[in-house]
Every structure is written in structure tokens, then in C-alpha cells.
């Protein structure tokens, strides 16, 4: 290895180090990943400039020095035993610090608050749904593509009709996923049935993909006795154990550390599955976002954190939510691999989630995906977003950047879909949904007996008493109680 | 005075009174002594050994052997997968514990003190307590949150609050407050085995105290029922309810009262939620007088709930107003003299019992 490098004080110091160690008769193992741990030096202070004066007094060997330089450069990735203090008190150009070697610099530089360019966004289909040449993506079969597209359409129709139902006073609340159909369906399509989902609340498409029927959605929204939640929760708070979809919980971001916990449990059980947890741009401001990501990284848990950056958290625009370049840059802060993807490009989302799943399951690591999209609808039926954003902006994203249209163009260009199928699908889904709503509306509400169940695994005596008193009161004053609630 | 036997225990500085008519079982005369710390440690050890789903998580529980050494030796025995040291994120590890419990594991999450559980209280209340109900039984949460609760000595306001009333007001949780070593073992085992979320409130000052334990208590299948109080001392003149460290104070107060001819019945609540209303009411119907003792703040406290329960169910049996002894209604001061004044002392309990027995002038009249 006849590579000569310019002799700088740094290399002298390094050579010094080398010399000293060789003088000590300490066999240097080239393959050893660590820096310069030496048991005999354990007591010496880690950071000491005191040895600078020895710099010129010891002889050094150029060849050794150069070899040493090369050796050092390959140590970049692996660091072990960072706590053992090293001989490098004399090596004042870098620091053995817990976590790895840190090199010094005499130039004072603050890391800029933002980089020159924003992190690029991965996409495969252009705005019109045409495949971008030379793009990397995972091919989907006709069957999967048609299923994905059909589910995206179903989600659109479901959102429209349930929203209307709320406006008509038939259900008390609803929230749409308009504009985020690609995120919902494509991410679900890339996962296996065993992967566990911890949603935020704008991901009913994941359940739709997994086979939750329109009737089951309607039953939950109407809180009738067929509802798996037994009428205990507001509309859209779906949950289904058999679909591995955890019941939606209103407090924001609590699902993130919980996801890390479940992922850890999957790992302990050696299951070939991962957890996928969704969060919006606003939710990343919660303390639980920090807790969840930090823990997942430390515990090496197989979890995918999927952030739907749709620009708005009710009326709070992202510029008022954080000042970082979105969410993707936060991944590195936690030691988590991350990617930014075009959330309105179904193929890109599908590919990114597939790849993320591979890494999470096989390498036992968390992955962060930031999907850029737009919340076309209002936050919920309790919101009128035209009060805080321009109508043109909404209309633009709804029409020109529509993920459903984009994907349809691609599916159609492959010859897998036609206008006729489109009309048939939309009519069929609409009809099914309207029927489901009618059935759900007429169905009985959950009986009184369910009111006191599930507070605990087994009802304690005080709850049994309360139920007894309530029944007695109802039988004494039936006029005060709704007649249609079964007792 | 039927059935009261006084016995001097080996190594105990104070005589302990044990009822012969014991609700549970009789003690062997040469009973072993065990500290509360060792009881908790042995309970954790046995439950972890019996069920591979049980794991321990918290700050300093592993390498440091536990902030109060409760988990001593467990890391060595079970390895880092089952005894996890966590970063300083209460919200994080409480959330992770809840997630793991959703999945089917049985986490025991340790808070260094329950004062720090405030940073995780959303996970405890909105996730752990309510999930089984909101998901209609699909998501159960077999988790135990444990750690020291209430005042220690000289630790100031943010390390001294008692959270029994806070957690006990929330449906979906079970709240336990052990006093003796037997309580610690039996209740912790019951908590770990229970499929519902349990908040297990220990007390730092009790960790080092020794109590006699019978062979039955030492058996690995020993378990105490959740929701049953224990009558530590049978009496007939006044009922004193207490939990955790205050049980010891109440027993000492009973000693003093006995010299004045007042025979106090001391109830160790053991379980704040569910509260053993039937035992309390049965006792009040017998003695007709009630003094509730707790370390925590008076407003909306455990004593308030007990008083309401007795007024609702046994009003006609009360011969005197209910006396409530609680901590001072101030954040805990640090200075030793002030701290002593802010926490119930034995004398406070004695005076309250006398007031209830009309042996001294009521507070209102004295003012």
C-alpha cells in the first residue's frame, strides 16, 4: 500500500498513537472494528490535550502511519466499546465518545436549520398517471391492480355517502379520507394479513382492503347491535380483531408508542410480521411521536411509521405545525431509515411500503415513511375548511391531483379497466352502501345488558348492582326511557 | 373483648395485634420475617417464572437492579428481553406496555414514583382503562403499573403526592394498595394474573419494613383476592379505615386508644378500586363510628368516597359524624418540621377517634 498522504498534525498524532501502542507491545488487530481501546488505559481521562507536547518527540514510521490512515477510514460504520477510554488522549483530533468516534474540527460551523434542497419525493406515475420512464417500482398484477382501484373507488363512494348521511342527521359524525385513497389502499395492499395495523382515524381504506364489508362500516357508524364495538364509540372508530386492525382511539399519536410495544412483542414471538402505524402531519407534534420513534429505534422493533402529511391539521397548516422539512428528516434524528413518497401515487406507495415491510421484518428495524398528499375534504363533519383555506386550492387538489384518477389512467392504459366497468362498479357500490345504511339504521341498538360489560374482564359487584338498580328504575318509570332500546 | 390475642413478634419493636378469628388462615407461631421489598421481588420472580408472557419494564429496573432494588437479580435471571431498561420517557414506555398488552403479553411497567406517571397518564386512562370497553372486549389490557406512591421523607412536592384517589375514580382500572409483606406478595401476584389493567401503589417507606409471613404466603401459588379489605384488628367501639403506610399508623393509634378504653377496629383497605364497601359498612354497623385515614389530599379523596358510601348505606347506624384524616391541603413542603405537619400522624388519628367517640370536644365547637 504505497499511498502517501500529506503529513498534517493530525496524521502525526495518529502515528503517535500507533507508535505508542506498538511500544506497549499491544497487538493491533486490523480487523477489530473498535478504535483504540486499551485495558491499561481505562483509568485515563478520555479527553486530554496534554499529550500534544509529545507530538514531535517520538519517532514515527511513515508506512505505519499511512496504513493506519486507511485503517481508520474503514472504521466509519462500526464502533464498539465506546466507553473504554483509549490511548487517544494524544489523538486530540477526534474523540472517543459514547456512541462512537466523533472527529473534532477547529472551524465553528452550525449545522444549518434546513438543507439547500428539500428531501426529494419518490414517485413512479406522473400527474396524468403515466409511468415515468426508468422508474423503479414493484410491479402489480392485473388482479391486484384492479382490486386496488376498485377499493379506492369504493372508499370514495363510501366517504361521499356517509358524509351525506351525517348531513342529513342520520349519523352524528363522519370523517372522510378524500384525497388520500392511494395511501389507504396501496399501503394496505403491500402488507400481509398478519401485519398489525394501529390507525389514526383517516385510514378506513385499510380495513376496506382487508375485507370489512360496507355493512360492517355502516353498523359501526350507526352504533347498532351488530357493531363490533357494541355502540360504545363515535362513528368512524372502527376496530376489528379478526382483521388485525386495532380500534381507533381519539387521542392523537398514542398509537405510536403502542405500535412499538406490539412490534416488540412480535419480535419476541419470532413472528414474520410487522406493525404499521399511521399518523398525520399534526400528530407528529405530540410527545408520543418522539417516544414512539425513539423507543422503536432503541428496541429494534419491526414497525412502520406511516405519516400522512396532508398539509393540514384541522385549520393548522404545516408551516405552523413544524419548521423542519416535513417529517422525513426527523427519521434520521432517531436513527430510523426513512423515505418521502408521493402519497397520491398508488404504485409508489405500494412499492415503498413493500420495501419497508421487508426491512422491518427481516432486519428488525423501524421505518419512517412520509407520504405527501392533500386533505381534500374538511377535517370532519364538524369542520368547514373553506373558512381557513382557499377554495381554489381545494378544487385544484381534488381535480388535478386526484389519486384515484391517476391510478385509473395507469390501470386503463394497461388494458385492465374500461369505462363500462367503471360505471358498473360505481353503481354497484353505491347501491350496496345505500342498502347497508338502510339496514343499519333500522337495526336495533345494543341492549342494556351490554352497557356494563367489558369495563372489566368480569363485572364486579358494584357494576352488577348498578345494572340491577337501573333495570328497576326503568321498569318503574318506563315513560322516561326510550322505548326502542332493548332491555 | 373476644378473640384478641396480643403477641410480641421476633425482631419487631412494637407489639402487633393479630385476630384469632382470622378471615384467611392462621399463622404458624414461628413465622418467617420478610421485608416488603423482598416480597415484591419474590412475587415478580415467581410470576415471571410461571408465565413467559410476563415482563418488566421501567427506568433503572435492569442493570441498576431497580431504583429501589425491587427488581434485584431479575435481569440476571431472565435476561434483557424480559427485564427492559427504558429511556426516560414515561409516556413512551407506558404506551409501549399498553401496546404489548393489547398484543397479549403481560407487562409490568414500573414508574420510579407515581408522581412521574402524570407524564403517562393519558396512556393509563385513555388507553389502558378504557380500551376493553371501547373495543367491546376485543382489546384487553392485562397490564400492571406499579411503583412507589405517596409521601416519602424529605422529597418535596413533586415526589410526594398520593394518587390513589385519582386512579380509583376511573372505571376500567383496578387500584391496589398493599401494606404488609403478605399484602405485597398476594396482591402483586393477583395483579399480574388479572386480565384488567391494575395500578399497584406501593410505598417507599414500607419497602424496608419487615412483617411476619406464613408458609402459605411464601407458597408460589399464593394470591389474595382483589376487592377484599382485611380487618387487621378487630374492635367494637370505632372503625378506622386506612391503606398503605397509614395502616401502620392506625394500628399504633389503636394501641394508644386501648389504654383509654376505646377498642378500635382497624381495616386495611388493600383495594381502593373496587372498594370493599361491604366490609366497611358491616364494620360501621357494628361500631357505629368511623374514622377514615389517608395520606393524600382531602378534597375528593378516598375518605370522601368511604364517607359517602357509609352515609348512603348505613346512615341510621352512625352515632357520630364521620371523621376524615388526610394530608394537608397543600403541596408537600420539604422542611422536615413542615413535612411532619403536612402528613397524618398517629396522634391525629387518636384525636379523631376520640372525637368520634365523643370523648373530646368536636372540632367545630373548639374553633
Give your account of this protein's structure:
The complex is a heterodimer of chains A (487) and B (367). Chain A has helices spanning 9-23, 62-73, 142-167, 181-189, 204-210, 214-222, 255-268, 287-299, 318-321, 328-333, 346-363, 391-399, 403-413, 419-442, 461-476, and strands at 94-97, 100-103, 196-198, 275-280, 303-309, 312-313, 316-317, 337-342, 367-372. With 487 residues, chain A is α/β, with parallel strands linked by helices. A 5-stranded parallel sheet of chain A has the order 3-4-5-9-8, with helices on both faces. In chain A, β8, α11 (346-363) and β9 (367-372) form a beta-alpha-beta unit. The longest helix of chain A has 26 residues, at 142-167. The radius of gyration of chain A is 30 Å and the shape is globular. The model of chain A is unreliable at 1-15, 21-58 and 60-90 (pLDDT under 50). Chain B has 367 residues and is α/β, with parallel strands linked by helices. Chain B is globular. In chain B, 54% of the residues are buried. Chain B has helices spanning 36-50, 74-78, 90-103, 121-134, 164-168, 181-193, 215-218, 245-259, 277-287, 302-314, 336-342, 346-356, 363-366; strands spanning 4-7, 16-19, 32-35, 54-58, 83-85, 106-110, 144-148, 174-176, 198-202, 210-213, 230-233, 238-242, 264-268, 271-273, 290-293, 323-325. In chain B, α6 links the parallel β8 and β9. The model of chain B is unreliable at 1-28 (pLDDT under 50). Chain B is built from 13 helices and 16 strands. The chains are: A alpha/beta (487), B alpha/beta (367). Chains A and B meet through α7 and α8 of A and α3 and α4 of B.
Amino acid at each position: 500500500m504505497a499511498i502517501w498522504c500529506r503529513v498534517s498534525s493530525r496524521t502525526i498524532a495518529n502515528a503517535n498513537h500507533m507508535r505508542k501502542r506498538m511500544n506497549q507491545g499491544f497487538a493491533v488487530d486490523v480487523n477489530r472494528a473498535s478504535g483504540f481501546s486499551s485495558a491499561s488505559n481505562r483509568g485515563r481521562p478520555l479527553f486530554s490535550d496534554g499529550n500534544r507536547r509529545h507530538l514531535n518527540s517520538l519517532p514515527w514510521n511513515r508506512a505505519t502511519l499511512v496504513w493506519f490512515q486507511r485503517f481508520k477510514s474503514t472504521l466509519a460504520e462500526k464502533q464498539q466499546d465506546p466507553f473504554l477510554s483509549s490511548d487517544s488522549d494524544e489523538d486530540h483530533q477526534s474523540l472517543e465518545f459514547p456512541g462512537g468516534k466523533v472527529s473534532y474540527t477547529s472551524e465553528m460551523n452550525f449545522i444549518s436549520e434546513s438543507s439547500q434542497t428539500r428531501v426529494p419525493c419518490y414517485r413512479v406515475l406522473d400527474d396524468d398517471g403515466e409511468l415515468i420512464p426508468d422508474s423503479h417500482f414493484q410491479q402489480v398484477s392485473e388482479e391486484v391492480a384492479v382490486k386496488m382501484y376498485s377499493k379506492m373507488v369504493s372508499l370514495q363512494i363510501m366517504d361521499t355517502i356517509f358524509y351525506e348521511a351525517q348531513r342529513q342527521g342520520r349519523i352524528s359524525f363522519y370523517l372522510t379520507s378524500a384525497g388520500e385513497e392511494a395511501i389507504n389502499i396501496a399501503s394496505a395492499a403491500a402488507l400481509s394479513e398478519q401485519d398489525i395495523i394501529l390507525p389514526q382515524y383517516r385510514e378506513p381504506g385499510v380495513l376496506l382492503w382487508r375485507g370489512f364489508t360496507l355493512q360492517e362500516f355502516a353498523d359501526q357508524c350507526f352504533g347498532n347491535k351488530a357493531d363490533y364495538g357494541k355502540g360504545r364509540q363515535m362513528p368512524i372508530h372502527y376496530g376489528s380483531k379478526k382483521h388485525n386492525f386495532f380500534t381507533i382511539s381519539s387521542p392523537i399519536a398514542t398509537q405510536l408508542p403502542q405500535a412499538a410495544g406490539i412490534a416488540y412483542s412480535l419480535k419476541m414471538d419470532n413472528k414474520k410480521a410487522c406493525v404499521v402505524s399511521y399518523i398525520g402531519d399534526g400528530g407528529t407534534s405530540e410527545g408520543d411521536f418522539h417516544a414512539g420513534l425513539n423507543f422503536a429505534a432503541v428496541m429494534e422493533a419491526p414497525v412502520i411509521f406511516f405519516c400522512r402529511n396532508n398539509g393540514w391539521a384541522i385549520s393548522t397548516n404545516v408551516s405552523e405545525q413544524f419548521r423542519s422539512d416535513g417529517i422525513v428528516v426527523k427519521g434520521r434524528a432517531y436513527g430510523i431509515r426513512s423515505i418521502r413518497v408521493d402519497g397520491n401515487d398508488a404504485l409508489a406507495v405500494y412499492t415503498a411500503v413493500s420495501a419497508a415491510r421487508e426491512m422491518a421484518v427481516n432486519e428488525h428495524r423501524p421505518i419512517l415513511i412520509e407520504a405527501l398528499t392533500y386533505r381534500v375534504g374538511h377535517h370532519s363533519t364538524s369542520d368547514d375548511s373553506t373558512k381557513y383555506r382557499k377554495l381554489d386550492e381545494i378544487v385544484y387538489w381534488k381535480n388535478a391531483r386526484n389519486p384515484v384518477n391517476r391510478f385509473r389512467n395507469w390501470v386503463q392504459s394497461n388494458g385492465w379497466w374500461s369505462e363500462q366497468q367503471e360505471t358498473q362498479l360505481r353503481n354497484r357500490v353505491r347501491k350496496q352502501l345505500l342498502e347497508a345504511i338502510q339496514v343499519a339504521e333500522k337495526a336495533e341498538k345494543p341492549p342494556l345488558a351490554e352497557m356494563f360489560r367489558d369495563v372489566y374482564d368480569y363485572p364486579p359487584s358494584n357494576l352488577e348492582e348498578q345494572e340491577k338498580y337501573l333495570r328497576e328504575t326503568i321498569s318503574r318509570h318506563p315513560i322516561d326511557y326510550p322505548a326502542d332500546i332493548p332491555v | 373483648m373476644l378473640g384478641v390475642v396480643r403477641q410480641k413478634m421476633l425482631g419487631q419493636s412494637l407489639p402487633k395485634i393479630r385476630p384469632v378469628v382470622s378471615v384467611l388462615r392462621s399463622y404458624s407461631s414461628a413465622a418467617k420475617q420478610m421485608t416488603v421489598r423482598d416480597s415484591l421481588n419474590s412475587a415478580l420472580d415467581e410470576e415471571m417464572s410461571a408465565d413467559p408472557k410476563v415482563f418488566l419494564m421501567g427506568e433503572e429496573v435492569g442493570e441498576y437492579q431497580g431504583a429501589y432494588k425491587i427488581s434485584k437479580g431479575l435481569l440476571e435471571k431472565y435476561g434483557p428481553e424480559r427485564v427492559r431498561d427504558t429511556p426516560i420517557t414515561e409516556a413512551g414506555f407506558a404506551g409501549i406496555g399498553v401496546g404489548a398488552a393489547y398484543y397479549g403479553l403481560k407487562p409490568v411497567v414500573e414508574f420510579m414514583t407515581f408522581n412521574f406517571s402524570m407524564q403517562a397518564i393519558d396512556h393509563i386512562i385513555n388507553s389502558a382503562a378504557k380500551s376493553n370497553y371501547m373495543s367491546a372486549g376485543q382489546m384487553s389490557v392485562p397490564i400492571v403499573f406499579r411503583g412507589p406512591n405517596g409521601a416519602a421523607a424529605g422529597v418535596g412536592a413533586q415526589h410526594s403526592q398520593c394518587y390513589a384517589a385519582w386512579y380509583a375514580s376511573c372505571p376500567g382500572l383496578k387500584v391496589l394498595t398493599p401494606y404488609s409483606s403478605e399484602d405485597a406478595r398476594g396482591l402483586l401476584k393477583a395483579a399480574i394474573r388479572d386480565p384488567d389493567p391494575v395500578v399497584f401503589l406501593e410505598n417507599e417507606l414500607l419497602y424496608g419494613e419487615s412483617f411476619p409471613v406464613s408458609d402459605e404466603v411464601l407458597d408460589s401459588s399464593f394470591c389474595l383476592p382483589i376487592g377484599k379489605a382485611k380487618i387487621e384488628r378487630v374492635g367494637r367501639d370505632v372503625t378506622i379505615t386506612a391503606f398503605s403506610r397509614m395502616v401502620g399508623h392506625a394500628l399504633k393509634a389503636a394501641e394508644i386508644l386501648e389504654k383509654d378504653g376505646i377498642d378500635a377496629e382497624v381495616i386495611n383497605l388493600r383495594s381502593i378500586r373496587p372498594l370493599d364497601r361491604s366490609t366497611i359498612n358491616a364494620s360501621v354497623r357494628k361500631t357505629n363510628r368511623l374514622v377514615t385515614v389517608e395520606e393524600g389530599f382531602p378534597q375528593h379523596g378516598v375518605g370522601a368516597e368511604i364517607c359517602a358510601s357509609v352515609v348512603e348505606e348505613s346512615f341510621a347506624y352512625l352515632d357520630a359524624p364521620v371523621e376524615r384524616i388526610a394530608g394537608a391541603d397543600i403541596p408537600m413542603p420539604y422542611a422536615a418540621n413542615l413535612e411532619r405537619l403536612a402528613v397524618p400522624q398517629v396522634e391525629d388519628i387518636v384525636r379523631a377517634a376520640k372525637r368520634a367517640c365523643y370523648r373530646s370536644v368536636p372540632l367545630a365547637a373548639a374553633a
